Each structure stands twice: as structure tokens, then as C-alpha cells.
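Inputs:
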Amino acid sequence: MTPDSSSSPAGDPSPSAGDRRIPVAVLGATGTVGARLVQRLERHPWFRLAEVAASERSEGARLRDRVSPDIELSAVDAERTLVSLDGPFRSHLVLSALPASAAREIEPELAARGHLVVSNASAFRADPGVPLIVPEVNPDHLDMVDHQAGRWTPTGGPARDGGGIVTNPNCAVAGLAPVLAPLDAAFGLRRVVVTTFQAISGAGRPGPSAIDLVDNVVPWIGGEEEKIEAEPRKILGRLVDGAIEGASLTVSATATRVPVLHGHLEAVSVELDRTATVDEATAVWRAFRAPEVARGLPSGPEQPIVVLEQDDRPQPRLDRDRAEGMAISVGRVRPCPVHTLRFLVLSHNLERGAAGAAMLNAELAQASGRVRPALG
Amino acid sequence: MTPDSSSSPAGDPSPSAGDRRIPVAVLGATGTVGARLVQRLERHPWFRLAEVAASERSEGARLRDRVSPDIELSAVDAERTLVSLDGPFRSHLVLSALPASAAREIEPELAARGHLVVSNASAFRADPGVPLIVPEVNPDHLDMVDHQAGRWTPTGGPARDGGGIVTNPNCAVAGLAPVLAPLDAAFGLRRVVVTTFQAISGAGRPGPSAIDLVDNVVPWIGGEEEKIEAEPRKILGRLVDGAIEGASLTVSATATRVPVLHGHLEAVSVELDRTATVDEATAVWRAFRAPEVARGLPSGPEQPIVVLEQDDRPQPRLDRDRAEGMAISVGRVRPCPVHTLRFLVLSHNLERGAAGAAMLNAELAQASGRVRPALG
Amino acid sequence: MTPDSSSSPAGDPSPSAGDRRIPVAVLGATGTVGARLVQRLERHPWFRLAEVAASERSEGARLRDRVSPDIELSAVDAERTLVSLDGPFRSHLVLSALPASAAREIEPELAARGHLVVSNASAFRADPGVPLIVPEVNPDHLDMVDHQAGRWTPTGGPARDGGGIVTNPNCAVAGLAPVLAPLDAAFGLRRVVVTTFQAISGAGRPGPSAIDLVDNVVPWIGGEEEKIEAEPRKILGRLVDGAIEGASLTVSATATRVPVLHGHLEAVSVELDRTATVDEATAVWRAFRAPEVARGLPSGPEQPIVVLEQDDRPQPRLDRDRAEGMAISVGRVRPCPVHTLRFLVLSHNLERGAAGAAMLNAELAQASGRVRPALG
Amino acid sequence: MTPDSSSSPAGDPSPSAGDRRIPVAVLGATGTVGARLVQRLERHPWFRLAEVAASERSEGARLRDRVSPDIELSAVDAERTLVSLDGPFRSHLVLSALPASAAREIEPELAARGHLVVSNASAFRADPGVPLIVPEVNPDHLDMVDHQAGRWTPTGGPARDGGGIVTNPNCAVAGLAPVLAPLDAAFGLRRVVVTTFQAISGAGRPGPSAIDLVDNVVPWIGGEEEKIEAEPRKILGRLVDGAIEGASLTVSATATRVPVLHGHLEAVSVELDRTATVDEATAVWRAFRAPEVARGLPSGPEQPIVVLEQDDRPQPRLDRDRAEGMAISVGRVRPCPVHTLRFLVLSHNLERGAAGAAMLNAELAQASGRVRPALG
């Protein structure tokens, strides 16, 4: 038995002898996003799941007895015992799938203890001291986390050395921002009008009632439009002296909920500084690759944007699973009589928009040397 | 037996003695829109159903054996015998719910014989000699039909005196144009970006396959966007010397099909000539009434546009049936960061968008003295 | 102003002068069933809505601010003020749409005060002292309520004179029992195997999550199968010396939830004492009428059971609204290779299965002289 | 270039040098089942796709231009050229996903030429000379195919040596029969009452209209109940002197279509010769394994039947994909008050019920030495 495994909490699996992958803690492991993080770690080449935590009422329970029925865990993971969100955690790297309210309390506290918290929560996305990252778009913003140590103190005290918080975008922005970024780089992006068709799983469990989504569309998602309008400016912004100078872009969003399980579809019209033809935009999207530092991350598809040519695509059910939900589909690219171009974007809200996004950020943190084998 | 009833085709009901309502023929009576026209005539104060026609393969059959299962007809109507689309028809007024291809052949022929054809088909909507009418918006365009006699000849020869073709808009435009018209009148309308969420029944039967609309949205409806971009310009245009001078408006449309039975929802952003606040626009919509000539028509709601104030409305299932599907719901009116205002529009595609629209046009024709008790 | 109206709670409508209809209180008016009771009272010939009550957290609020969005109330009803479930109520007749837990506490208390409580709740359906009634089937069981006064005391003390509790069946049984009753009378009913396809609205709000009913069926409804197996025995039983002798019938039920808004469909196989052909059973169902005492009730269709002959009917969406949801559709009647006959039953769970069922019981109580103009 | 590949039709991929897998032809490759067969062959350990055929109107086209959008083929398969259903085919083994009408004509003709046709079509399932096989249940029935040579001649002449037709069951029976078989073996099976909830994909494309399956269930599938009642008797029957002696079982089936994409759910009540407890039945199902000859086939799960213990399972969306759709889920096993036991069964209609079923039969044919490397 290795020293490491001997200190496992009772009932939890020990890593195989010789498993040299970096231990990771997952917070909020019972929800769909948290469970998907657990599942993504099952065969991860760099990381291994070491600790799973959930809210007080699940503490001490087996994961299998509390986990979302939508995710089929491995037998080993199903048997894990849930620990308190307060920890203590031995893993330096903490993946958080907490709801915003819990994240707001717990994440700064963990950063103060020196954990690197890679969070899917919305709590700190708009915080000027916290990076909001899509590795293919703005991996350089990750430098912001280095400035959190000793300085950033929303509630938990300043982050300890090596500690900090990194966030990924809202699930609708996660598909949109990588599509806007290369347009902005190539043609200059001024204005965006977007209407979303968002999937039910984006609301978590219990989420919307069935009575509201049979033979119906609900044209409102509380707080969503504000995020879609604000987050792209931060993601496409420039890091200047450790702070983000937001992009000058204006976004108008209308967010709706449709009877679709997974996959956010978005109808987008963009006004560009320079004229761009359908072929030019298509070429730019197809050529788009992550910057060097973020290239080859295990969860990142080599080609992040797939442009479809059929008239009636992308469709949520047919296109959401491309590259395990990490590739973004663009289709129906055509000139816009009001602006410059219009098109549809589809991305998997649980993968590219949540669990995959957080995992990709964790991989970026590791690739850039910021993850430690254990809390120091 | 009255003289009138003695000339009824075998098997068809005679009008009650003393029923002085104007006889009407319905073409394409077996489809959902045609059957809804039949149903709307059951208790119509001005018109009575005299003749029902359908395509060759239904000729001679009882209506009940061929009609869409979605419409529950009265026992009397269910027993009617379907006659040929070629007629001859005794009614001067003909309501057409034919598909575009059949309409293109038959409607001009009927106009040439002197029938006033009030059509829901798309075949002649864009024809410069044919009026495209929403009674609350452009009832004056009906004058165009008076110029068809002796002149308009797409295929059937010139219309005979009293004959002609009148059309109503595409089902997505039928809800949109009346909402745009008062904005244009009050503030000047420049540009519109609209994304539609269209109901299944808009496609007729068999329509889309279930396999494509469970857990899915199809972001394309062939030919629809072109209509949504063109028709508002004609409807909001001015009649000058018998021809339409289109409005200068530019529309960009993205049309999608969602798993909803009835009710087209549309997310709209408008750029106006003059600034308008949410309250000003709301007041303009609430004050909107049909012009004098079109006021008080039996199928027209007194208040054509209802502005909802709840955050999450309009919703197709909850709002489509307002005023028997003839009132249009507007909701979520708010400033648009890219244009001037944005809002959602909902209207019942089979009522305001098809059967009710054609009926309202027939009523306008009657109110303006253009309908005759029988073909001369 | 009449003396009656002068004592109305502030903000509540007074009955029109000369409105001689019997006042009624509705408990649980904010839920879908309660709101539907309110709506059914808008034009009721015998009863008028006098009082609306809801749970503590809605007390004092306007009905419109708490009511289920699925029901569109009249302007007058929307403005009513909700009072406490504890009353006091002036109406003798109380219609209860409470959840079982609240019903269990409040209904006996009201009976003890002398109110006749006509309840849709499951709380006392199985109570040997409480009648479980479908007016077309067992109106004579209503005599049981006369024995409650002074005797029946589950928790609230004995019912006061004129007070008591009357219940209607579970929403799946409400459609099934009236179909079984005439078979039993004509041929003797031994065994029933039934599989239900139950609509979402049967679960109230919030009800099942959309994530569980898109692209899915949930083959379990907690507690439902037990009710479907037990209640028909009581309804089809005989009243002997004031107590029910249950029918000897055996029922095996499997209850499932399907993505349908309203309308419970049931696939039924029955074993009869005597052989019955499809034609014989059809004739028996078509001839079925309510017993004299329950005939002509305002909410009862003249013909309670409609037998459909098309291959593919009944279907929830097409057949649930027959006779305002009070007629039960039977279809696909055919011999059963295992038992005697098999067929499908459809009934509207909110009407025949809940609000309409309670209203019909209230009407039966009035027709049999048990309702008083006010609490004595 | 190998001799084999040099004779490939233009445009079709050559097998990799050294690919010693047995060549297979797929008929009806453009439909969902056919395309799924193509997909299953991509990584098959024993077989390789050599020829793809479709109806006349697709002949000469690329597979990618005609294939069902529901199946994502590999780039290599997408480029294959469709040949005529008449062949000639070089593969001895032919997998047929043809509709019944085409199968009726073509399959006997291919058998007469010496092909072993493993068919998913219903055309010959009931033919007394054709085996109807589920490898885990009745692999011995495959012997029947040996008697087809020189004798069996429905239309195509007698099968040539090595030629013949083998079928798999209807998609609803494919899940049911393996669940009934071990009950029959252990306890004796007398009577079965089954109600199905069948998925949309079972109807192929275009299949049911969306307008019929939003907010609805269609309680009828033409011809389905007859198959569900007849096929289990043949599958559970005994092969005596080259002919099937049907099991004495009686089945009563009601078949419905529900708004589910994939996965047929069935509510089953069984009457057994001997009493069986829930635990006994569960043990029998869990112990059930394929007979020796059919054990370890590449597409067969080691444990064909999974018994679930949660109250609300199996559910189509959550359980259909178990073992790539080849494991059958049983749940809610409980005593039946009318018969002996009742339970729910779920199986994937496209895998266990169609493409996987045919593939498993092909594997059984190979394992039993009946497949040749090429048409002799």
C-alpha cells in the first residue's frame, strides 16, 4: 500500500500503485455538471479524482445515492464517500461545480488556503480580479490568477501563494465567444444580436417543469441575457497591467428555453468593421486553432469550430456530441441584410459549456505549470 | 323544399329557409387551414358555407373521410360532399386554402370567371397586381383588386368584372406586420432583425417527422426567411396609382421549427428613426386599432395587440388562443443595446396566420361592398 | 347594495343583486384543480363562487398573483382575495382541491363545523365512513354522508348536522370506473389488467421535471397503482347498512407518466363472467346513462361514454376535450386472447378526473337536497 | 495493390492489405437500420463491409448523400458507392435491412444464388421454413437454414447450397422474448399480457408526423400486435424434424407509439405454471446466459438481462444504451394480483431490436460454420 492511499478516507478507492496522475477534488459532485467532471476524470491522462464533496445534507453519503440519474458513473466512483465542502482537501487543484451562492462563500476560502479553484460557477466571473477563460481564445488571461495571491479578497481573505480562482463562461457564452473571437481578429467585431434556444439541462435539476415545456417555449431565463451581453467583452478583452480592458463589442441577447435535452443553439447576426464574405468567414473559422500554450490539451479538440454546409444544420440532437461535446458547430452562414453576416452556433451546454470547459481550464493551468501535486 | 336547396348537390345540406347569409366556397377544405375555415363558417354572422372543394383524389368523397384529424367539424359539415377544384361554383366569394402549386393554376382561372378569391396561398402574394392585406394595417390596398378586372393575367386570362385575388401574409409575417406597423407610424421603422420559433402545424400535414422534433430544433424552413424579409415591405408600403411602393424597411430573418403544436413566437429587434422608450412603444401598441373601414369585422379583435407584462411571456401554449387566436401578444419589451427596442411577438399561426387571416380579408371585402350574393 | 355583499371581505366582488345561486367556497384555489373549479363556477347555473382560500403563505394575496398560469381566470375572479383555509366560511358547500396532507387536517374540521366538503383529495377516499362517488355509477353511496353526522371522527370530531365529506376518485380511476361499471352490470367483471399513460398535469405543479420527460417515459407514479387497484372495488361495491361491501373485482395496475399535458390513457384487458362480443360491449357502453337521481346534472354529459371506431383512437390530444372533458372515450375494443375483451380508455384528468368530478359530486349533493344556502 | 482491391467498384475503399475479415454486403444501407449495420461493421472483429446496396433510385450515389441523418458514418463509409439490390454480390453473407416488400422479392432470389441472407425484415419471419432467431434463446433453430437448400422456394427458386434466409424478431419482441424464455424454462409460461410504449425510430423515416406526437400518444401501430402475439411462440418453440413446434404460450398485446426517440418499453404481466417470487424470477434472469454455441459472440453482452432495483426504472432515455443497446433492462418486478408476476422491460429498438439483432445472428452463423469467405 502506498503512503498516499493509506491516508484515504474510509470507503474511498485508493489510486492504483504507480498511478502518478495529479489528484483533484470535485465540489458539487452530485449535480449533473459535477458528476460529469467525475466521469471525465475516469480516464483522464493527467488528473485523477481524489476527493468528492457536496453540500452538507449529502456529507457522508455514497456518491451513487445522491448523484444525478443522468450520469452513469463507474462502479468505483459510485462508491465514493462525499465529504464536506469545507474540506480539508489534500488536492491542490479543486474543480467546482457549485451553484453560485455556495461558490461565493466557499471558493474564496479555498483560494485563501492555497487551492487553485477552477470553477464553473457564475459567482466570480465578473470579478475584475478573476480570469474568465476559454483556453482557445484568451489563455493569457490566466496570468491574472498569479496576481490573486496576497491581493484578491472578496470574502475569504487574500489568496495564499498558489491559490486562486479561475472561471469559465456561462454555458451560452462558451459556444459563442470562440466563434466571435476569430471574426473579431480577422474583421473587427462591432455588434452582435443573438437569440438563444437553450437546452433544459442547462438549468440543472430539478430545472424547468415538464408542464412548461411540452408544446411550449419559455422566452426568458432569469439573469442569462445579462451574462451573454457582458462575458464576451471580458473574454475578448486585453490583459493590461494585470487587469482586463474589455472589448468594445456590443451584444444584444434574447435567451429562451426550448424542449431540448442538451445543446444550446444560437441565432447570431454580427456587424463587422470590414466586409467579410461567407467564404472568408468560413475560412477563418476553419483555420482557427488554440494558441500554442493551449494546443493539445487532452479535452480540447484540435479544430474547435466545425462549419457545416447542409441547409438545416446545426441541430441540437445531431450535432451536440461532436468531439465529445467540445467542438462548436457553425452553420447557415449567410450575409445579413441588416448587419454583415448571420449564422447559427451550436454547442453542448454540459460539455463545452460547463464540465468540459472547467476541465479544459484545469488542463491549461497544468500545462502552464500552475498545478501542484498536493496542497503544499 | 326551397328553390335554393333544390339545387344543392346530392348529399349536401341545404341552408335553413330564411338563412340570408352570403354563400361561400372553400377550396382545399380537407387540410387543417381549410377545415378551420369550414369550422369558422359554422357560426359566422355574414357568410355561410355553400361549397367545399378538394383535390382530384378527394372529389366525391365526404369531407369527414378526408379531413385533417386536428379539426372536429359539426355533424352537418362532416357530411358534405367534396367537389372538384374546377367547380363550377355558385358562390361569388371563394376562400382558398390550397397549396401554392394548386393555387397558382386554379386561382387565376376562378378570377377570370368572376370569382373573388380570398387566398391563404403564397402563390400570388408577391405579384405586383395582387394585394397582400392585413385589415388592421393596410385595408386600402384592397383597391388593387378593382384594377385586376380586365388587366391582371398571370395565367388565367384577365379577371372578369367582380373577380380578383386577395392574399394574406405568410403565417410568421401575419403576427409581425401588425406589430411593426404602429411602430413605423409613430417612430419610423428602419431595420428589423427577427428570429422565429415556428410551430409544427405551420407546415401542414404530414409536416415534419417526429424523429426530427423530439429533443431537437430544426433551424431552417425552406423559403420562409425570404417571405419574412419581403412581405412586410409590401404590407407597410403605400398604394400609389394602383401599385405598391414598398416601405424602405430592411428585415433580416432566421426561421426555425420548434416542437410546439401551434403559435409562432418571434424574437425581434428594431431600429427606429426616432428614439422610443418601452413605455412609448407599449402605449402605441395598446392604442392600435384597425382603420375605420376594417373596424368591427366579426373575426377581428377590438384590440389587435396585447402587451404582456410578465417576465416570461408570451408563451405559445399559454397565449396563442387569445381572442380565438386573432389577438397578437407582445412581451418582454425592453431597450436593445444594438438597435432601439427588442421584444417578443406571438401569434397563432393557424388563426391570425392563416384561416383567421383569410376570413378577416373576406370580411373586409364584404364590408367594402365587393362581395356578391352569387356569381353573376 | 345587498346585506350579503356589504359583508364581503374588502376587495372581493359582491354577487349581482338578484343572483340567487348558492354560494360555494373553494379551498386550494391557486392550484390547477382549484383554479379550474373557480373557472367552472363562472357560469355555473346553480352555484356561485363566494369564497376562495389557500394555504397560509397565500393568505391575503390576490388570486391572480398566486394562481397556476395554466388557467385564465375572469377579471372578477382574478381580483379575489385569498382567505385562510381555517375560514370561517359562510358557504355551507365547500369544494376542496387541497393536497392530501392539508385535506387530512382541514376537511374533518370543516365537517365538524357543519360544512359539506366535496373533496378531490385522496385523504379520505379509502375511509370506510366516507363515500367515494362517480354520480353516473354509484350516486346511492351518497347516503353514507348522512351517517357521518355525529359519528364519523377521524380527527376533527364528529360531523355536525349537515356536515360531512364526499370524495371523488383518483384521476386514473375516474375514467376507468364508469367504463367498468356497465360491463360489470351486464356481464359480471372478474379481473382487470390495466396499464396507464398518465398526463403531466395529473401531478400538479411543479410536477415532473422536463429533463425527465423529454425523449422519455417514467414507468412509475408513487402510490398510484394502489389507488387504481383499490378504488374501483369501493365504487362498484354495494351500500349495505351504511357501509360499503366492496366488489369482488381484482385489478392489476401499472402506472406510467408520459410526455402529454392532459388526458390519461389506459390500456385495459378484462375478464368477464360471461362471454361478451365487441358489439355487445359497445352497445352496453353506448346505452350507459346516469341513474335517475344523477341525470341532467349541469356538468354531466348526457352520454358519459363515447365509443370510437377509428383504428388509432382515442388519442389524448384529440379526444380529451369531448363534452368539456367530462365524456370518457373508449376505443380499439377487441377480443383479448388472454381474457375476454381489451380496449383503451381516455379521460381528461383535470376535468373528469378532478375539477369536473368534484363539481359533479357537488351537483349530485344539491340535486339530492343536501346543500344549504349558507352554513346554518 | 492486392488482387482483391483491384476488383473494387470505382470509388469504393479497398480493404487494408492483410485485412482477413470476412466480406459482408449490406442491403438497404441508407435507412437507419442499414446505416447502423454499416457503422457496426466499422470495428467488427470478424466481418468487414465490402458492398452496400440500396433501392434503384439511390444506385450509383454516394452513401453519404442518401444516408439517414441520424447515423454519423466514418469518412470511408460515407464515400462508398451504392450498388443495385440485384447485385451481383461477391460476399456470401448478406445483411438485409430492407423494408418487407423489397425483402419479399429480393431475399429469396439471393438465397437461390447461394447467399446466406441475415435479414431484419418481417417478410419471412412467419414462414415455416425460415428460422426466427435470438441467439441467446434459440440458436439451435439455425439448423433450419440447412434444410432450405434445394427445398425452400417461396418465390426465388430453391436456395442453392450454402444459401438461405435467417431472420430476427420484430423490434418489440426482440426485447420481450429473451425475458420470457428463462421464465418459461424455470416456471412454465402460460399467458402474457403486454402493453408497449414504442419509440419513434422503430417506424423508420419519415415515420410518424411530429404533429401527432407532441402532447400525445398514438395507441395503435398497424400490424404490430399480431407480430408480438405470434413471434414469441415461434422463438420459444421446439425444433422437431426440421420444423418448429410453437410454444403453447398465449400473448395479448396492445402496441402504442410514444414521443420517445429510441427504446421500446413494455409493461408485462405473466401467468406461470408454477408460483414464482420476485426474488426467484430476478435470480433466474440474472443467471440467464446464452447457450454455449452463442456465448462470446462479439455483439452479445455477457449478461443479456439486467434487473434494475430502483422504483422508477427502466426508463427509455436512461437505460436503452446499456451494452451498446444489446442488454435488456427489466425493472419493477412485483407480484401480479391477476396473474403471477408483472414487470417492465426495456430494450433498444434499433440495436437489440434491429441492427444489433441481425448482427448477432450473423455472428451466430459464423460461429456455427455457416459463413463462407466469398460466394462460391
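Residues 171-348 of chain A form a domain with the Dihydrodipicolinate Reductase; domain 2 fold (CATH 3.30.360.10). Flag for discussion at group meeting.
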